[in-house]
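hi! just following up on the protien thing from before. the input was this:
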Amino acid sequence: MDTNLRTRIRAGDHDAFGELFDAYARSVYNHAYRLTGDWAVAEDVVSLTFLDAWRLRERLDTEGGSVRPWLLGIATNVTRNTRRAARRHAAAMARLPREEAVRDFAEEVAGRLDDAAQLAAVRTALARLRRAEREVLALCVWSGLDYAAAAQALGVPVGTVRSRLSRARAKLAKHMEPLSGHGQMKGDRTTAVRPIREGNR
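and the predicted 3d structure came back as:
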């Protein structure tokens, strides 16, 4: 991202912001999905991320490389807020009188598919990580940010990123080992939790 474009974004140039969206919307979307596991929520996070980026545009440095860490940092914060709101909504719904549930046979059938079983196993393992560990894993392993860029995105020291990532990898390996041993995972579990890295733009 050249300095001129950064300057245009800070100045509120709509064309420059359109270029920013075209370049990084997919990356923000992938990051949001990896944190939430929900396509619809990820779409909402993309919209909110770029709205926040517009609102916070004057905080963007005029000098620097890729704007991607800045955007993924905003997306991480948006995801935290979105998940917090979802928990409040779920708690409110849980207090309402429940209707008699109708059995959903579609879920039962889908649960028999290997791909669904593998995805469930991975998501179960990820759910056992602390939020901070999931965020670092998503930024460094899946989005391909280096330690410095991830630290910039999260607003924490580089050493903190290193330690969180190390703990996340160790815990993930530990949590997925019994899943693999009970036949719930097939193939290389490392591949299952490491989609194609997007690289730094």
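Residues 182-197 have pLDDT under 50 and may be disordered.
Residues 45 and 78 are 6 Å apart (CA to CA).
cheers
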